[in-house]
Amino acid sequence: MTPDFDLLVIGGGINGCGIARDAAGRGLSVCLAEMNDIGSATSASSTKLFHGGLRYLEYFEVRLVREALVERETLLRAMPHISWPMRFVLPYHDSMRFDTTTPTSKLLNTFMPWMKGRRPAWLIRLGLFMYDNLGGRKILPGTSSVDLRNSPEGAPLNAKFEHAYEYSDCWVEDSRLVVLNARDAEMRGARILPRHKVVSADPSGDGWTVTIQDTNTGQDITVTARMIVNAAGPWVGDVLRGTIKSNQTGGVRLVRGSHIVTKRLFDHDKCYFFQGMDGRIIFAIPYETDFTLIGTTDQEHHDPDVKPECTPEEQRYLVDFVNEYLANPISTDDIVWTYSGVRPLYDDGASSATAATRDYTIHLDQSRGAPAVNVFGGKITTYRRLAESALEKVGEVLHVKGPWTAGVALPGGDFPVDGVLPLMDGLMRDYSFLDPKWARRLVRAYGTQARMVLGDATVPADLGQQFGAGLTEREVRWLMDNEYVQRAEDVVWRRSKLGLRMTAAEIKALDGWIARASDHPVSKAAE
Fold this sequence. Notes:
alpha+beta
């Protein structure tokens, strides 16, 4: 009997969707099952950065940092609508002390004990020099120094900070990245099943027989596949032991990262990199034009089925942390939104969540007599390379063509890195009812496909019902038809962040409209 699919991918986060896209582009038949919305867990709750991970150099994770730095520019070229360069300001004061448990700190304590936990400026400059040069940087500008005493970058900061270093990394719309990978996989032949949970998988002949439940209706479907790819993120351990009943060892360490969002705290478009006495770092990032995103924490999280939330203690921690740097302190009353995600890190036995590796590990498992690939860890910046590594494991069992994704644009990303403004100008010229803010949002979300969303509209009324914050019926219908939307939350918190601008009543009305317009009404049990 011929299996239905070569690969069944479990998990619709960035790793699962990236693997599905890569595999489909190599000619494999692929089915991806995600028990919730596409990209709704960890991949929607990151700090929204494509970055090498400057602090990982302290842990000597040079390979991971180099791979991530190379990927920044590869990905920037493939998705210039949802990612863009950003400058990061790292304030420095010679009295600052840091965590003394990192490998770098231990070396300093051994050879320079008189520093007593302080970081010499030369060490930071050395780290930034490595950061500039490890990845063969071509697009992004290198590190420079900033005088904070008379500059926009220094205006929001405590006056004791007079000097800073400024370096480059990139911003990314994380949940849009996931859905664009899913769309591209589907356009290349993959079958994408959001809100479908894999409930059992049993060896059958040379492959697997898999039962998948539609979580909206409760109905089961059965498919066969030659291989399984377990990319379930925080649930990778549950799938490994409970669903495919593997004998393979290997664990996942769940680490909760929480973020807070406040009204805008500074009047420039650069990000701050703040260093704390506890070894943590946090970012303060310009967010959605009118807000500032602050994060993240590192807290152990023991159950993937417990929804992660930014606790009052974490909110207080982030507020206190940023207040060490700000000239005008904030309070928890200034928080307008919080979110939290669970990072499924590979359990390397590190003593703390902060020290746990952000690298990924991929295992080929044939202990059940049928092949499976289990994916542990990873970070959003290296998802494409992780997918290539997973396909190498698949290639040990199946015939697999060579890698192809480097430099290939995601849907809507087929324009130059510096082409956002020309796209906006062209959109406003052809759709005269658009203002710059509206045009920018559409281009930043859909790139060259923004025209597909607007269609033949000549006046706003042609776009149908207005749901608030510039969201229209035509856009929602396009999202339902093309981006797997089934609920209001899919639209306002993942395909966009319009939930920051819409009222609860507007979101509820949108949810009702989607339910009435949907071919997949939500059952009472699912609600």
